């Protein structure tokens, strides 16, 4: 465990599902530098709020959260502050002792002391943007909702590559989240057909969908 400012704990927070695809490497990096590892999304790593609960329960006086992402989009790291701000607000009444929470943005989970001193740290006060917004009460207008299985069998058969390729093609066609909602899920059950993709409202169950099938699939969705 990395000790900073006397007795704080460093937590590398993986931001996107793409970052989770490289969780094993991040895990090794974090372990080498003594940092803990948490995630904003998915079910494979400790969620950030649970990690903060654990640290506070252990009497940790300071949690330093590094948003780790290699994703091209810049919005991800801001969610570490939103979620941490939500935790500070919602746990204020129950925390035995106030735990100082800070955030910074990094590119990797190897967080040795020189790296930590180079990062720009900001305190989390509870005044951060909330988890809700009027814009998020309804799904955006869409023609199709695509469920892409990221369960263990589908992942083992290349669902991560299918997800990246399909996301990229839909984004290039300006149809991602705007016409086609793409949702990555855990096991959808017909694992023998992995990687599995379901298209609604057609009710079509497709599989196996290999990376080389993605151009055709994207074309059908556009
Ligand atoms: S793991 Fe994908 S359908 Fe079961």
From TrEMBL:
CDD domains: TRX_Fd_family (cd02980)
Domain of life: Bacteria
SUPFAM superfamilies listed in its UniProt record: Thioredoxin-like
Cited InterPro entries: Thioredoxin-like_sf
Name of the protein: Uncharacterized protein
Lineage of the species this protein comes from: Bacteria, Bacillati, Actinomycetota, Actinomycetes, Micrococcales
């Amino acid at each position: 465990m990395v000790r900073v400012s006397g007795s704080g704990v460093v937590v590398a927070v993986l931001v996107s599902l793409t970052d989770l695809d490289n969780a094993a490497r991040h895990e090794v990096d974090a372990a080498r530098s003594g940092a803990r590892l948490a995630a904003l999304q998915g079910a494979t790593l400790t969620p950030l709020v649970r990690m903060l609960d654990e640290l506070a329960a252990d009497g940790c006086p300071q949690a330093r959260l590094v948003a780790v992402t290699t994703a091209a989009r810049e919005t991800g790291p801001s969610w570490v502050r939103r979620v941490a701000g939500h935790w500070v607000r919602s746990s204020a009444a129950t925390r035995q002792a106030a735990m100082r929470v800070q955030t910074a943005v990094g590119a990797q989970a190897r967080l040795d002391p020189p790296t930590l001193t180079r990062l720009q740290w900001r305190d989390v006060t509870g005044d951060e943007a909330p988890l809700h917004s009027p814009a998020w009460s309804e799904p955006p207008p869409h023609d199709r909702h695509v469920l892409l299985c990221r369960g263990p069998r589908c992942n083992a058969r290349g669902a991560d590559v299918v997800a990246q390729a399909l996301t990229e093609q839909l984004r290039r066609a300006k149809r991602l989240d705007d016409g086609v909602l793409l949702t990555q899920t855990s096991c959808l059950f017909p694992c023998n057909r992995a990687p599995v993709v379901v298209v609604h409202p057609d009710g079509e169950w497709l599989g196996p969908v290999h990376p080389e099938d993605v151009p055709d699939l994207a074309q059908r969705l556009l």
